């Protein structure tokens, strides 16, 4: 069997083993997104987070913006994936917090410019969200695995497969998302 076939089999196995955890991360994200949207008034602290993010990127040109977005998202996905080993707490918190922010932003955009303007978030989200959900779901699975004897025994294989998924699935999706997002931001500046 060719090495590339084995790698893709390991990637598919890890994603399949993590499917329940990925779905859990997706549900947490969307539930917290609805909370962020419908209770935006309770989360005004997010304004300072958003302002800080805008300040970091406002003077960047296209390639710099691409690099900033990619490094930020790649680091966040990597940290969420591998710090999931701490009982899965980091991926759950990451999904919860990012869902709140997305819901909050959609609400603010809807109030300021109309709900139809929220579509601007969608193009990069098509690639970014699945990448993040996969990374966080695998992180959650790795964290859950420490609670079972079989999971602890298989942790090295799980970490190996997680690295493969990160390199061959998550990172390429984040590269596409960063390209689209930096291009859109550059166009709307």
Describe it.
The model has no long low-confidence stretch (mean pLDDT 91). The chain has helices spanning 3-17, 19-38, 46-57, 62-82, 89-113, 122-145, 149-153, 155-188. The chain is mainly alpha-helical and 189 residues long. The protein has one domain. Helix content is 83%, strand content 0%. The protein has 8 helices and no strands. Helix 4 (62-82) packs antiparallel against helix 8. It is globular.
Please supply descriptive tags for the structure shown above.
189 residues, 8 helices, 83% helix, globular
Please give the radius of gyration in angstroms: 18 Å
- Helix/strand order, N-terminal first: HHHHHHHH
Assign an overall shape: globular
How much helical structure, as a percent, in the residues? over 70%
Taking the alpha carbons of the first and last residues, their distance comes to 51 Å
Number of domains: 1
Average pLDDT works out at: 91
Note the beta-strand portion. under 5%
Give the class from helix and strand content and strand pairing.
mainly alpha
Return residue spans where pLDDT drops below 50 for at least 5 consecutive residues.
none
How many beta-strand runs?
Answer: 0
Number of helices, where a helix is a run of at least 4 consecutive DSSP H or I residues: 8
How would you characterize the largest beta sheet? none
């Amino acid at each position: 069997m060719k090495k590339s076939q084995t790698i893709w089999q390991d990637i598919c196995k890890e994603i399949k083993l993590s499917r329940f955890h990925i779905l859990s991360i997706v549900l947490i994200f969307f539930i917290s997104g609805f909370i962020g949207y419908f209770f935006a008034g309770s989360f005004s602290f997010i304004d300072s987070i958003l302002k800080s993010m805008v300040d970091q990127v406002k003077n960047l040109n296209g390639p710099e913006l691409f690099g900033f977005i990619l490094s930020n998202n790649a680091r966040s996905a990597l940290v969420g994936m591998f710090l999931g080993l701490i009982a899965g707490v980091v991926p759950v918190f990451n999904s919860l917090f990012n869902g709140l922010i997305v819901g909050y932003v959609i609400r603010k955009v809807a109030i300021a410019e109309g709900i139809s303007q929220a579509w601007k978030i969608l193009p990069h989200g098509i690639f970014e969200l699945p990448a993040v959900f996969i990374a966080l779901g695998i992180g959650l699975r790795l964290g859950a695995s420490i609670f079972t004897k079989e999971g602890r025994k298989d942790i090295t294989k799980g970490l190996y497969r997680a690295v493969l998924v990160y390199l061959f699935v998550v990172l390429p999706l984040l590269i596409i998302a960063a390209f689209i997002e930096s291009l859109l931001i550059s166009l709307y500046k």
